[in-house]
Design goal:
single chain; 142 residues; mainly alpha; two-stranded antiparallel ribbon; 2 strands; FxsA family protein; transmembrane
Length: 142
């Protein structure tokens, strides 16, 4: 519990230290524009959060029955990265970029074929074709 409290107290100090160091190397105006641009990007992402759900839905439809756990959590990751972009600072921007990376997770089976089956599996069986005889020649299609 103390470690979490210590991290919460150190986080703002680390953000300020990175901003000051970056401003020393690049200049204050460039850092200000960078922070402003990342905050605007975060606000835009939070306003367009429906895009994350739409991307998840299209991914699920493309993959068929096999769905990754990380792809199901995409809207949550998208919203959290938007919030981290909206917070001014370089470390929060780096965390937001890490959340947006497309990680592959374990596949979940959503009621489709079993994981052991492959598309090359053959199902053997017998069939017979039964045609109904036409009563007269006028009903038959040519």
């Amino acid at each position: 519990m103390r470690a979490i409290l210590l991290l919460l107290l150190l986080y703002p100090l680390l953000e300020i230290a990175t901003l000051v160091t970056l401003a020393h190397h690049l200049g204050g105006g460039v850092v200000f524009l960078l922070v402003l641009a990342s905050s605007l990007l975060g606000i835009w992402m939070l306003r367009n959060q429906k895009l994350g759900a739409l991307l998840t839905l299209s991914s699920v439809l493309r993959q068929g029955q096999q769905v990754s756990l990380y792809s199901l959590l995409w809207p949550l990751r998208y919203a959290l990265s938007g919030l981290l972009f909206a917070i001014p600072g370089i470390l929060s921007d780096l965390l937001a970029i890490l959340l947006l990376l497309p990680f592959k997770g374990p596949a979940l089976n959503m009621g489709g074929p079993t994981a052991a089956s492959t598309p090359d599996d053959v199902i053997e069986g017998e069939f017979s074709r039964v045609d109904k005889p036409a009563a007269d020649q006028q009903q038959r299609l040519h």
